[in-house]
């Protein structure tokens, strides 16, 4: 046979390139980071349920949260100390940190295991509206971390981050 050589399997090379591009795009999507944007806070996690979160949690700034499960009608209870009164960047970065509230109530984990919700007992409605009431569940170095991004624009990353004592 004479003439121009045929380009064998050119369609396969195109499919391979498209598949590789799709795989790369999916890998970037699952990291949780958009292009040019960094994550603010620990890596999100979905593997921790309520049983994994019992114990005493604290932040570097003195905020603490004690998660318990006494059972019965009380269900899962919590006690906070120096809990943030507001979610502003000013409070997150103030030196010395402002004193927060001491409160208690009940807590629960969302069905998708991404969020811990606090329901406060005996605090006034205005204070409850301006208080951190939910925390994201994340992971750092193989341990669960509770966190919430506090005020601030897209250029600032102020996070309330609680780690369990002993982790």
What distinguishing features does this structure have?
8-stranded antiparallel beta barrel; single chain; 37% strand; 19% helix; 167 residues; alpha+beta; 9 strands; globular
Backbone structural class: alpha+beta
Number of helices: 3
Largest sheet: 8 strands, antiparallel, barrel
Q: Give the overall shape.
A: globular
Strands, count:
9
- The span between the termini is 73 Å
Radius of gyration: 23 Å
Order of neighbouring strands in the sheet with most strands:
2-3-4-5-6-7-8-9
Our estimate of the beta-strand percent is 35-45%
Order of helices and strands: HEEEEHEEHEEE
Stretches with pLDDT under 50, minimum 5 residues: 10-37
Helix content: 10-25%
Instruction: Give the overall pLDDT as a whole number.
Output: 76
Characterization of the model:
The protein is α+β, with helices and mostly antiparallel strands. It is built from three helices and nine strands. Strands 2-3-4-5-6-7-8-9 form an eight-stranded antiparallel barrel. A hairpin with a 7-residue loop joins strand 8 and strand 9. The longest helix has 21 residues, at 10-30. Mean pLDDT is 76; it is low at 10-37.
